[in-house]
User: Fold these one by one.
Assistant:
Number 1:
Amino acid sequence: MVEQTIGKSVQRKEDLRFITGKGRYTDDINLPGQAYAVFVRSAVAHAKIKSIDSSEAESFPGVRAVLTGGQVADDGLGSLPCGWMLHSKDGSEMKQPPHPVMAADKVRYVGEPLAMVIAETRKIAKDAAELVAVDYEELPATAMVNQAQEGAQIHAEAPHNICYEWELGDQEATEAAIASAAHVTRYSLVNNRLIPNAMEPRAALADYNPGSDELTLYTTSQNPHLARLILTAFVQLAPEHKLRIIAPDVGGGFGSKIFVYSEETALAWAAKKLGMAIKWTAERSESFLADAHGRDHVTEAELALDGTGHFLALRVKTTANMGAYLSTFASAVPTYLYGTLLAGQYKTPNIYVEVDAVFTNTAPVDAYRGAGRPEATYVLERIVNLAAVELNIDPVELRRRNLIQPGDFPYQTPVALEYDTGDYEASLNKALERAGYADFSSRQEEARSRGKLRGIGVSCYIEACGLAPSRMAGSLGAGVGLWESGEVRVNPTGSVTVLTGTHSHGQGHETTFAQLVASKFGISVDDVEVVHGDTGKLDFGLGTYGSRSLAVGGSALSKAADKVIEKGYKIAAHLLETERDKIDFDDGEFRVRDSNQSKTFQEIAFAAYVPHDYPSEELEPGLSEKAFYDPVNFTYPAGTHICEVEIDPETGKVEVVRFTVVDDFGTIINPMIVEGQVHGGVAQGLGQALLENCVYDEAGQLQTGSYMDYAMPRADDLPAFSVDTTVTPCTHNPVGAKGCGEAGTIGSPPAVINAITQALGIRDISMPATPEKVWRALGAGRAHV
Amino acid sequence: MYNFNYHRPTSIDEAVKQYDEAEDGQYLAGGHTLIPTMKQRLSAPTDLIDLSGIKAMQGITRSDDGAEKMLQIGALARHEEVASSPIVKSMVPVLSALAGGIGDAQVRNRGTLGGSVANCDPAADYPAAVLGLNAQLVTNRRSLDAEQFFMGMFETALDEGELLTSVHFPRPEAAAYVKFPNPASRYALVGLLVAKTNDGVRVAVTGAAPAVFRAAAMEAALTDDFSVSALDSILLPAGDMNSDMHASAEYRAHLCTVMAQRAVAAIVAQDQARARQVTSEVTSESTS
Ligand SMILES: Cc1cc2nc3c(=O)[nH]c(=O)nc-3n(C[C@H](O)[C@H](O)[C@H](O)COP(=O)(O)OP(=O)(O)OC[C@H]3O[C@@H](n4cnc5c(N)ncnc54)[C@H](O)[C@@H]3O)c2cc1C
C-alpha cells in the first residue's frame, strides 16, 4: 500500500532542480544562430516623436536590423488589448485607447519601447541602441494620480484622462443610511504604488521557421495559452495554430507575468519578419521601468454605524491609476476584484463604491499579488479600526459584533458576491489565542520599560479567488472564460503524466498536483509527472493568477482522474469477469467486493494499452482522460492577521516583533507549500506597509529605479511568522480548496498599520510607514498633549 | 559595459605608469562601485588597471610610528578581511565592527578600504572612521591627513592618477560607530563615529551631508562632559544636510544626535566593562 499524502508536507519535487541550478529558464535556452534584441525606450514621460534616425545604428558592425514602432504600424499589427471591458455609470464603454506594440507617434511613459535593435550579440545591440537618435517634442506630463483629471491629456480618446467612472451597489440606500446613522467614521487614504520584482526578469526567445510557417515563443509567462489567444486573435501576429508559446521554468511572477507586453510581442513579430531566432532578456532596470506596476489608489471612505456598533453602510470613492495604457487585466483590478470585496467578513447591509480609473504618464498598472483585494481589505480593515477607536470599543469586539456567522451561509453581499462557506470567528479566535492577544498589555509594559512603544493590530480579510465562473466573468465584461483544463495520461506501466493549463512559477504545482492525482489512484507521488506551460503540449488553459490553480485547475484534474477511474472499473470488470458495480477501487486496487480477487491500477493500465484481453466492443483502448472545469462560484479564503510592532521612538523605526496568521483555505493538500505561500505573501504585505514605494517625480521620471532606492523587504526585516489554519472546505469544487497564493499580501498591510497607529496613539499613518513618517507622527502626537 | 583594455600590474610604479599612459584610465579595486557604473554605461574608461596583483597595497599590520602604535591597512584590504582581522580587533575594534556592517557578505568579500575611501560616497561607512579616528592616508606620492583628504561629494584630494596605497589608523582610547541604514540600499542614511583619541574627542558624520564631516558642536560638548546627556540639546544644522526621498535634512539632523548618543552610550558601556575587568583582575591578583 502506498502512503497517502493528502494533507502531508511532501518535499517539493521541483526543488532539487532549482537549488542545484538545473532549472531551465527562458534565458537558459539558446538556438543556433540566434540574434539579440535591445529596446530603445522613451527617455521622457510624454512627447510626440518627431523623428527616429536609426541609420547610424543600422550600419554598426554586427547589427542585423533596427525596427521601429512605425514599422509595426505599417505591418498592420493590432493594438495590445485589455481583456476586460468595463462600463461607466452612464452605461458608456470604458475608453480603451490603442496600446501600440512599440510607440510610433507619441510616447506616454518613461521606458516605453519605441524601437528595437537586433544584433549578433547583446553587447552590439546595446552599443547600437545608443546610436538611435530620437527627436522628441516634449509635452507636459501628468504623472500623479490625484492630478490626472486636470493634467495634460494623454490620449485623444480620453478627455480628462478618465478611462471609466464605475460604480457598484445601492447609492441611495447607502447615502440614506449614512445620513441617519448614529456615528460615521471618515477616512482618506493612499494605497501606495508598488513594483513587482520577480526574481527572474522577463525574457523571451522567438523563433520562426519559414518552411512550416511556425512561430515559437519561449517566454516568462504565467499563462501561455492566454498570451497565444491575445497575440493571434487580437494582435494578429500569426494564426493561432502556427504560434506555440512555451513558458518553461519561470522565476516568480506575482501577476507581472500575466500580461501581454510590448517587448515579447515585438520580439515574435521581428523573428517572423526577419526569419531568425531572437532573444531578449530584461535587465533589472528595464523591469523597474516597464513591468506593470501594482496598487496606486487614492480613496475616501465613510463607514456608518448604529448606536450599538453595528455597521449600517459603507461608501467608498476611489481614483485608480491605470498608468499610460490599459494593461491586459488592468480595468478589472480596481473594480471587480476590489469593489466586490468591500463587504469583507461583515454584515454591512448597504455598500456603494465608485471608482474613477485614470490615465497618467507612468508605466501601466495591473494586477500585482492580491490584485484589488489588498486595496479593498486595506480600506475596510483600517476604517473599521478607526471606528473602534472613535467609539472606544475594542477593535476585536467591534469586528465580532459584525461578523457573518456560520449559520448565515450562503451569504449574499450587497456588492454582488455570494459567499459559500466560512467560519470567520473561528479563525479570529484561533489567531487571538496564538498571538497572545489577551496578554498584550504585559508585553507593552515590558517594552515601555525598555523605552519602546509596542502596538498590536488586527485585520480580518476575505478574498474572492478561484477565478472564475465563466458566465459570471463574461457578464461582467471579461473577454475570456476562466475555466481550466486538465489531462491525466496514464502510461502503460501505470505511471502518470498530468497536464494542466495552470502554470507554476514558484507555487510548487509539480508537487501539489502530483499529490492530488497520486492520492486518487493510490500510487506514489514519484509516479506522477506534471507538465505545464506549453501550448504545443496541452489543449488550452487559462494560467495561474488569482489563487486559482488548485481550486480550478486541481478540480479539472480531479475530474479527469475520476474519468480514468471510471474507465478502470470497466476494464477491471472485464478482467475479473464480474460487473462494474461489484468492484471497489481503493488504495490502488480494483477489488471484487466480498472476494479476494483484484487487479492493481498498474495492471489495468497495462491492459488498456496491451488490449489482448479487453472489452474492445464497448471500450476504446488507452487510459488517458481530459476534463474541463468551470467553477460555479468564486472561492472565499478568509482569515485573521495579527501584527505586533515595537517602535523606537527616537528614530521612528518600526520592528515587526510578532506576526500571526490563521487562514481558512479550505482543504489543504500540502501544508508546507501553503505555509510557504503565506510567508511570501506576508513578506510582500509587510514590504508594502513598511518599505516599498514606487515614486515618480512630477515630470514622470521614475525615482525608484533600482534597489538603491526601492526598498525590498529582506529576511532581517521580518519576524518568525506564526501560521495556522482553520478549515471549512469549499462547497462547490471537488477538491474543497479555496486558494492560498495571495492571502498574505491581502490581510497583512492593515494589520501592520493598525498596530503602528495603536502604538503611537495616532489616527493614521500612510504606507509605507517609514521611520521618518513615524518620527514625525510622534512629534505631532507630542504637540497635541 | 563598453570595451576597455585590462591591465594587471604587480607594482605601484607599474600601475601608475599604466594609468599615465592610458587615454582614460581607471584603477579597479573591488569593483563594487566601478563595475556597476560601467554596466550602466555611466562610466566608460578606456583602460582598467586592476590593482589586485599589487602586494605592496595588501595586508594589515601593526607598526610603530614614533611613539604611537599605528594600525596600517593596505588599500586593497577587503571589508571582510578588516572585519575578521585579529590585529584590527585588538587595536581598533570599532573598525572591524564598521567593516562588518557594510553591505552584505558578497559586498564585503569584494569591496576594499581603498576603493571606498577613494570613491568618497556621501553615504559610505569608512570615511567616518578615517576622519573620526584621524587616520593618515598614504599615497604613492605623499601622506595626507584625513581632514585634507575628503573634499566633497565623490571628491577627494587625490590628484589625477594618484594611488591611495594604505591607511594608517592611530589607536583610539575608545570609539564606537553607529549607523542608521537606508532601508533600501543599507548604506548609511546617517552614520556617526565617536572616538576618544590622544588629541581629544572626535565626532565624524557620514551619510548626512555631501561628504563626511566633523561635528564640532558635539565634540565640544563631549569634551566638557563625555555623557549621553551632554548631547541632548545639540542639533546639527539641517541646512547643511542632504534631503532626498529617503530622509529630509531635518530628520537626518535629528538622527545625527540620536546616533551620536548611542555611540557615546556604547563607549561609556565599554569603559565600564573595562573598568570592571580591571577591578576584577586587581581583585583576583590580591586574592591569589
Ligand atoms: C550592494 C552593495 C552594497 C553596498 N553597501 C555598502 C554599505 O553599506 N556601506 C558602504 O560604505 N559601502 C557599501 N557598498 C560599497 C562597497 O563597499 C565598496 O566599498 C565600494 O564599492 C568601493 O570599493 P571597491 O573596492 O569596490 O572600489 P572600486 O569600485 O573598484 O573603485 C571605486 C573607485 O575608487 C577608485 N579606486 C579604487 N581603489 C583606489 C585606490 N587604491 N586609489 C585610488 N583610487 C582608487 C576606482 O578607480 C573607482 O573610481 C556597497 C556596494 C554594493 C555593490
Note: DSSP finds eleven helices and 14 strands in chain B.
Number 2:
Amino acid sequence: MASEAAVAERHATPAQIVPWWERNLAWLLVAPMIVMFVVFALLPSLTAILFAFSHIKLTRGGMQRTFIGVDNFQRALEDPIVRQSAGITLKWALVVTTVEILLGLGLALLLAHGVRGRGVFTSLLIIPIIMPPVAVSLMWFFMYEPNFGVINYLLNQVGLPSVLWLSDPNIALYAMMAVDVWQATPFAFLLLYAAILSLPRDPYEAAAIDGASRWHIFRTVTLPLLLPVLGVVVLLRLIDAARVFDKIFVMTRGGPGSSAYTTTLTVYVEAFNKYDFGYASAISFMFQVVLVIFGTIYVRRVMADYSAPAES
Amino acid sequence: MMRLLGSRGEGRSAPVSFERVCKRFGAVTAVDDLSLEVPNGEMLVLLGPSGCGKTTSLRMLAGLESITGGTIRIGETVVNALPPRARDIAMVFQSYALYSHLTVYENLAYPLRVRKLSKAEIDHRVRDVAQVVQIEELLDRKPRALSGGQRQRVALGRAIIRRPAVFLMDEPLSNLDAKLRLHTRGELKRFQRELATTTIYVTHDQAEAMTLADRVAIMNGGVLQQVGPPKEVYARPASVFVAGFLGSPPMNLLAVEATSDHGAPSLRIGETPIPAGDRLGASISRLRTNGNAAILGVRPEDVVLHRTEEPGSVPSEVFVVEDLGNERLVTLNAAGQYVVARVHADAPAEMGDRLWFAFDPGRAHLFDPLTERRVD
Ligand SMILES: Nc1ncnc2c1ncn2[C@@H]1O[C@H](COP(=O)(O)OP(=O)(O)OP(=O)(O)O)[C@@H](O)[C@H]1O
Ligand SMILES: [Mg+2]
C-alpha cells in the first residue's frame, strides 16, 4: 500500500515531507487580514489617541505636534456644539432604531403568517440593503428636491403644498431619518423574519390548546422567544445609527445650519474644515469610548439573560 | 389532593366520536377510516406500535391537524373546522411542548391565566397540581433546567390543571423511571376516575394500557384493529396483529393444518395430529379457506412442556432459555416454527434439550390466514 507508506513516512519526518508553506498555512491565510488591520485600523487608532492629547499645527510639508495633556477633552466637554451634536446623535439613534424595529417586526410577523407573494416581497426588501449609502442618499436628495423632486410633485398632485424637506431646520433631520428607516428597516425585518420562522412550533400548539388568543400568544410566546434576537437587532441598529455620517453629509452637510450636526459630522468639521486634528481626535475618541461602554453594559444587562447557563 | 382537584361536577366532560376519519400526508395515509365512540367519562387508551397513527389521531381531535375525511365530534358538536381553543380540551404533548421562556410555575399557570382566574385561585391550583405530579421543588426553574422526566411531569401538570371536556394524553409517562411511572400511573387513574372526564390516552406500553384503560383501542398502520375492555382484547384478540402485539411475550402464532372435510374437525402441527376438542373443533368448522392452512394462537403461559412424548404433544428442541427470576421463558424450535413457553422458574430445560410441548386446545385461538381475523 503505497499511500499507507506515505502516511507513515509523513508521520516519521514531518518537517521534510510537509513543505514550509503548508506548516504555516493558517498564518499565511490570515496574514493579509492582519496587515490590513494593522495598517488601516490599529495604526490610525493609535495615532488618533496620540493626536487626542496633542495640539496639531499643519505646517508647510508636515505638521507640528505639541503634547497638551487632556486639554482637548476638557474643551470638548464644554463645547456647546459637541453637546448639541451628542443630543442630536442620541435622538437620531433612538428614533430610527425604534421605528425600524417596529416596522421590521410588523412586516416580519405579517409575512411569517403566510401572506401571498412573500418571496417577491423579501427579494424587494433586500434592495435597500445592498445599495451603497451614498447612492441612497443621492437618490433621496433628488427625491426631496423642493422644485423638481418627485415627493413634492406627488404632494402637489393631491393638492398639498410643497415642503422644504432638506432646508427647513424643523424638518430636515426627520426627512433624513426617514431615509435611514427606508434603508435599514429591511435589515431588522430580515433578522426578525428569520428568527420568527425558526421559532419552535410546539409552544404555539400548546398555547392554542390552552385557549390563548392570537394577541395573547404574541405577547406571551412570540415576543419572549424573540427577545434574544430582538436584543441583538436593537444593539446593532443603535450602534450603527449612532455612527451615521454619509446620509447627512451627502444630503445637507449637517445643515441647515448646524441643525443636523451629529457627533460624526462635528468631528468631520473640526478635522477637515478647521484642520484641528487634535481636537477632532479627542471628540472621536470620547465618542468611541461612550459607544463601547454603552455596548458593554447593554450586552451584560440586556442580553445576559439569554446566554447565561440555566439557573438552578 | 383529589378533593381539591376533582370537585365533582365542575368539569363538563363530553363524549368523543370519530366517524370514518382519514388523514393523509401526501401519499402517506396516517389514519385510515377510523370510527370510534368514546362515551362520556371513559378512559380510552390508544395502543399501537410506533408510527401507527396514534399521535395523528389525537392531533386531529385537538384541532392541530386538519382532517382529510370524516367527522369528529366532541359532545354534540362537529369540531372538524373548530380551532383548538374552541374545543375545550387539554393535552399532554409527546414532545412536552413546554413554554421554554417561562418557569415551571408559569407553565402550569398559563392555561389558568388565559382564563383570567384570580391570582389566589391560580396559586392554589398550581401548588396543588405540582404536588400531584411531584414537581413542587421545581416550580422556579425553567424547562431547560429539567430532566426529561421532570419536563414530562410539568406537561402532565399543565394539562390536568384545567377541567376540560376531554383530556388528551400522548405518552405522558414514557420518560419516567419505572418507580415514578407506576406511582404516577396510579395517581392518574384515580384522578381520572375522580374527575370522570373523558380521556384519550396514547401509549405503546401495553402494561400501561391494560392498567389504565376502561377500553383499549389497538391500531396498526393507521387502521383500528380492535376496541374493547383490556381483559377482552387479551382473551379474545380479534386479529393476528392484536394477538401478536399483546402480552409479554406475545401469543405464539403457529402455521397449522386445519380440516373439517368429513364433518370431523382435525388439526395438525407439522406431522403431529392434535385432538381439537369441542370449542376449537367448532372454530375449525367455521374456517372458510380454500386449502387447509390456518393460524393457531397459543399464549406462552398455556404451553406445557413434557420430557417424553405424550399424545397430542409436538416434538421440539430447546432453542434458548431466558430466566426472569420468578419464571423462565423457554423458546422451542418445532420443525422451524418457534414457540415460547412461560414456565416455572425451576422447570428443567437446557439449550439443545429435546422436549415435547402441548397445550389445551380449548384455550387456543384460531385465525384465518388470509384475512388474519379471528375465527370463533
Ligand atoms: N406531518 C407529517 N407529515 C408526513 N407524515 C407524517 C406527519 N406526521 C405523521 N406522519 C406519518 O404518519 C404516520 C403516523 O404518525 P404518528 O405520529 O401518528 O404515529 P404514532 O402512532 O404517534 O407513533 P409513535 O408511537 O412513534 O409516536 C407515520 O407514518 C408518520 O411518518
Ligand atoms: Mg406519537
Note: Residues 80-112 of chain A form the longest helix (33 residues).
Number 3:
Amino acid sequence: MIEIENVRKSFGQLEVLKGINLTVKKGEVVTVIGGSGSGKSTLLTCINGLEPIASGKVMIDGTDVHAKSTDLNKLRQKVGIVFQQWNAFPHLTVLENVMLAPRKVLGMSKQKAEEIAVKQLTHVGLGEKLSVYPNRMSGGQQQRMAIARALAMSPEYMLFDEVTSALDPMLVGEVLDTLRMLASEGMTMICVTHEMKFAREVSDRVAFFHQGVMAEIAAPEQLFDAPEHAETKKFLAATH
Amino acid sequence: MFNTALSWSDLVFLAHGAGMTLAVTAVSVAAGTVLGVLFGVIRFQLGPYWAAPLTFVLDVFRSVPLLIQLVLGNALQSIMKLGWPPFTTSCVVLSLYTAAYCTEIVRGGIDSVPTTTRRAARSLGMSWFQDMRYIVAPLAIRVSLPSWIGLTLGVMKDSALVLWLGLIELLRASQILVTRLQEPLFILLICGAIYFIISLPIARLGGYLEKRWSPND
Ligand SMILES: Nc1ncnc2c1ncn2[C@@H]1O[C@H](COP(=O)(O)OP(=O)(O)OP(=O)(O)O)[C@@H](O)[C@H]1O
Ligand SMILES: [Mg+2]
C-alpha cells in the first residue's frame, strides 16, 4: 500500500505540491490527469524518493520513504518507475539493459538474470530484439524495453509518467497495450497520462491535479461523466 | 644527406632518449589520469561553488607555463630537502599538469551523461557508485576519449621540457648529437620521425576505440 499524507514540495519559491493525500491499495490502478505543470511528475518522483519533500509523509508498505534511516536503493527495488523519455542505457544491448539491475542490485547470477530478462522482454513483445542496441529501435520499442527493465526487478508497484507522450501516435497503442496487460495481471500502478480513453478503461480511480492540488478523485465514470470540480470540467472540455 | 657521420651508437643514444620520453610520459599520464578522474568526480559532485578552491589550484597548473612549473618544482623540492632525482621531480610536476587538464575532461564527460539516464539507473535501485560504474563511466569515457588522447600526445611533446632539469630525453639527445655532428636538419628529422612513431599507436588506439563504439550510440 502506498500512503501519501499531506505532501508538500517546492522548487525554490514555487510550491509544486500543496498538500497531497492519496492512498493506493494493492492491486489498484490509479491514473493521474491534469494540466501541464500541475505537479503530476513531481508527485511520482517524491513517491520513490528521487526528489525530497518539504513536509508530509510517503509510506510504502509501512516504510517512510523520506525518513533518513530508509535505504532508498532497497526501497526502489519494489517501486518501478518509467519516465516519459525512454532513457535506455545506450551502451548496452536490450538484453543487457534489462539484466543490469537484477545482476548488480539483486546480485543474481548471469544465467538467472538473463532468464528473467528474456521473460520480461518477451512479455512486452521484444523477444526478437535481445541483442539490438537501443538506438536501432523505435521510440515505442525503447519505451517497452524501459518497462521490461523496471519489471525485471519484480517490483510490487509501478509508476508510469506519461510513458506515451513522447511517442509517434502510431506507437502509442503498443505501449498502452503493455500497460493494459500489466493492469489486468493485478499490478498496483499509478499512471500519469493524457490518454483519457485509456484512463477510463484501466483505472479504478482517476485523480485530477490542478496547480499542485488534487482537485478531485473518483471512479472513472464519475470523474469523466459527472465531474464535480469546475476545473475538472474545464480540463476535460479542453482535452476533447 | 646519406653521407652522414651518424653512427649506430648515436642511434642507440637517440633510442635511449626516446625511452626516457616514453617513461616520463607513461608515468605522468598514468598518475595524472588517476588524479584527474578523482578530481573530476569531486568537481562534478561538489558543483562549481564548493569546488572553487580545487578549480583555482587546477587553473594555476593549466595557465602557468610548464617550464616555469618544472623549474619552480625543482627549486621547491630542493628547498624542502626532499632529495628527489630529476626524474621524480619531472614526473611529479608533469602528473599534476596532466591532472589539471584531465580533471576538466573528466568533468565534461560526466556532465555529458543526461540526468534522466542517471535517474533511470537510480530508480532501478542502483547506488551512486553503481550508477557511476556501470552507466556514467562507460558513457563518459566514450565522450572524453578523443580529448584524453589529445592530452596524452600533448604531454608526450611537452615532456621535452624536462631537459631543463637535466634529463636526457629524446629532444635533448638530438640536441647533443646536433652539437657534436653539426647535422641539424638530418638529426632533427630523425628526432621528429621518432616522436611520430611513438605517438602513432596512441592516436590509432583512439581511432580504433571510437570506431568500435560508434555503432552502439
Ligand atoms: N527540477 C525542477 N526544478 C525546478 N522546477 C521544477 C523542477 N521540476 C519541475 N519543476 C516545476 O514544477 C512544476 C510542476 O512540474 P511537474 O513536472 O511535476 O508538472 P507535470 O504536472 O508533470 O506537468 P507535465 O504535464 O508538463 O509533465 C512546473 O512548474 C515545473 O516547472
Ligand atoms: Mg510531467
Note: The mean pLDDT of chain A is 94.
